[in-house]
Specification:
By secondary structure, the protein is α/β, with parallel strands linked by helices. Helix content is about 40%, strand content about 15%. β2, α8 (about 160-165) and β3 form a beta-alpha-beta unit. The radius of gyration is 27 Å and the shape is globular. The relative contact order is 0.08.
Length: about 625
């Protein structure tokens, strides 16, 4: 403990923001330095989101210093900026557990702390949520303040603009802090990103307007009606003074900026100056992602979540020595191989070219890959427009993020039966990112939609063949789901790509008593479980890789229902409405009374932890599958 006090003399004295506010302002730069060092040291041993949190250190300190949190509310967006916030709000001593099983969440979580006012795993929700809180405060005559902190590319999301559009028409005192670091996870894209970089303001104008406002209010000449008129007049004055038009002030939202987001004393001054203003405001700060740690500043994409590393040298430590290839890399390389053969193939991703490995194609064919920013609905409908004109888009979106584009899939893709491929990366349990990122629901939410084909591969080779099949002519909208992480070692690089017949499963092993039906890579766990049975029991168990949940292989189901006494289904999605439900529905409609036991995710949100810990928790690891088989053989 003495070592900690020697290394972090200021930080060790702070348990909660009330302690922080006891410091003299002159001590804040040193505190920021300690915080930054603390984060680098902790994450070097326990991997997490590094660069984003380093870039928000001064902002975090300033916000908690100026505002009376938790009475005043901070809404973070995106949540991986909030590590310093966690450290300053009673969680410093357990920060080493972040993203560990039963440890701290990697994102703000109201269940974890009263200082975490809203869930922040997906981007772009802060303005809408904070506006709701601010309006509620107005209606209930509360004096507490609400601040939305939006950054790391979250302003490209459509929900952020919906919130902005509503901010200006409802009575509220919301403060929006735009943390502009020219980054999301990969490099920023789109006109909004360029606008935030190029936007100009006049320091003289802002000083003049600020002083004028306080003077008018002091002498009693400022009320809501006059204030709105002054704001409209001020916008016109500002356009002439600064030579630019500001999107925020065009919406009657007062704009302050740009402010150096790493000058904590200036941030404290500005926040104190504007915190009591009435009406909605935007404070635009400029920050550097990875600030204060040279390797992260030089390559913020790699250091967004770098894994284990040596803090003194920046050397990254490879923890996985299996030599297995990630499913996302099989996708990325196969997409490039297919694009070299088929000039109509186009790649689309919402801000995840590196995360989904579409950067492999982008490096070779930059004109045929589109990163549309954090805008999943737009990604799907943009892809639909490409498909309508005869191109073959591969739209790759993480499973949990695809939830935000559900209507687009139904209305813009499936209804028109367009030929395009939707790749759902991170399907199933993703691990330490937890419940906001688990791809738990895609089977259930995609399965009811007409005209879709929905498939999942058993291994790397089958993923490559499904990608090849999906881009063949007239296949309609084709959904392929696959998990985060490594494959199982199936040879795929030099294998000839083959068409897989849609709606047809594969018999991997025949048996007599119980048929195990799998959908996706969990079939490998089922195979390992069966291999561990004794010879007599093993002979009673059949294993089937169904490959498709829509259309499901009804011919194979008919054969299985006649041959076996029981069916056990295995899937890495929710049981409700999932693959097992599809099997049950078909058999029920046929009047077949064979018992069906479904293994899948429960009707609850699954916490964060390693995939191995979570599959054990949910009864989907090899041992749990083996135990279920044995019980049902009895």
């Amino acid at each position: 403990m003495s070592d900690t006090k020697d290394k972090y003399p200021l930080l060790s004295s702070i348990e909660y923001p009330s302690d922080l506010r006891e410091l003299d302002k002159s001590q804040l730069p040193a505190l920021c330095s300690e915080l930054r060092s603390f984060i680098v040291d902790a994450l070097s041993r326990n991997p997490g989101h590094l660069a984003s949190s380093l870039g928000a250190v001064e902002l975090t300190v300033a916000l908690h210093y100026v505002f009376d949190t938790p009475t005043d509310k901070l809404v973070w967006d995106v949540g991986h900026q909030a590590y310093a916030h966690k450290i300053l709000t009673g969680r410093k001593d357990v920060f080493e557990t972040i993203r560990h099983f039963h440890g701290l969440s990697g994102f703000p979580s109201p269940k974890e702390s009263g200082y975490d006012t809203f869930v922040a795993g997906h981007a772009s929700n802060s303005i809408s949520a904070a506006l709701g809180m601010a309006v509620a405060g107005k209606l209930e005559n509360k004096r507490d303040k609400v601040v939305a902190v939006i950054g790391d590319g979250a302003m490209t999301g459509g929900l952020a603009f919906e919130g902005l559009n509503n901010v200006c028409v409802n009575p509220n005192n919301l403060l929006i802090v735009l943390n502009d670091n020219n980054m999301s996870i990969d490099m920023p894209v789109g006109g909004m990103s360029k606008y935030l970089t190029d936007i100009t303001t006049s320091r003289f104008y802002n000083d003049f307007r600020f002083k004028s406002y306080h003077l008018l209010r002091k002498i009693g000449l400022m009320n809501d009606s006059k204030k709105n008129k002054l704001m409209r007049m001020g916008t016109s004055i500002k356009n002439n003074v600064s030579g630019s038009h500001n999107i925020f002030e065009g919406l009657n939202i007062r704009y302050f900026g740009q402010v150096d987001g790493h000058d904590v004393l200036q941030l404290v001054k500005v926040l104190n100056d504007i915190k009591d203003f009435e009406g909605p405001r935007v404070l635009h700060i400029k920050t550097v992602k990875g600030k204060g740690y040279e390797p992260a500043e030089k390559d913020a994409i790699v250091w967004h979540a770098p894994g284990l590393f040596v803090p003194e040298t920046g050397e990254r430590i490879k923890s996985d020595k299996s030599g297995l290839v990630r499913y996302q890399d099989v996708f990325g390389q196969t997409l490039l191989d297919l694009a070299e053969r088929n000039e109509k193939i186009i790649g689309i991703t919402p801000a995840m070219p590196t995360g989904c490995s579409m950067n492999i194609m982008a490096e070779k064919m930059p004109n045929r890959v589109f990163d549309v920013g954090i805008a999943e609905g737009h990604a799907v409908t943009f892809s639909a427009g490409l498909a309508k004109e005869g191109l073959m888009p591969f739209c790759n979106i993480y499973s949990s993020f695809m939830q935000r584009a559900y209507d687009n899939v139904i209305h813009d893709v499936a209804l028109q039966k367009l030929n395009m491929v939707i790749c759902l990366d991170r399907a199933g349990l993703v691990g330490q990112d937890g419940p906001t990122h688990h791809g738990a629901f895609d089977i259930a939410y995609m399965r009811p939609i007409p005209n879709l084909t929905i498939a999942s591969p058993l291994n790397e080779r089958e993923l490559r063949d499904l990608l090849y099949t999906a881009q063949l002519p007239d296949k309609g909208p084709f959904v392929i789901r696959y998990p985060r992480g490594k494959g199982v070692g199936a040879e795929w690089r030099d294998a000839e790509m083959k068409e897989i017949k849609i709606g047809k499963g594969v018999t991997l092993k025949e048996g007599t008593d119980i048929a195990v039906l799998t959908f996706g890579p969990l079939g490998n766990e089922a195979a390992n479980a069966i291999d561990e049975l004794d010879e007599k029991e093993r002979g009673k168990v059949g294993l089937y890789n169904m490959r498709f949940v829509k259309p499901i292989d009804t011919q194979l189901l008919d054969e299985i229902s006649l041959r076996y006494k029981k069916i056990l289904t295995v899937e890495d999605g929710v049981r409700t409405g999932g693959f097992g439900s599809a099997v049950l529905e078909y058999l029920s409609d046929k009047g077949c009374a064979i018992p069906v036991i479904r293994l899948g995710l429960p009707d609850s949100f699954i916490e964060h932890g390693t995939p191995a810990e979570l599959y054990k928790l949910t009864g989907l690891d090899k041992d749990a599958i083996k135990e279920s088989i044995c019980q049902n053989l009895k």
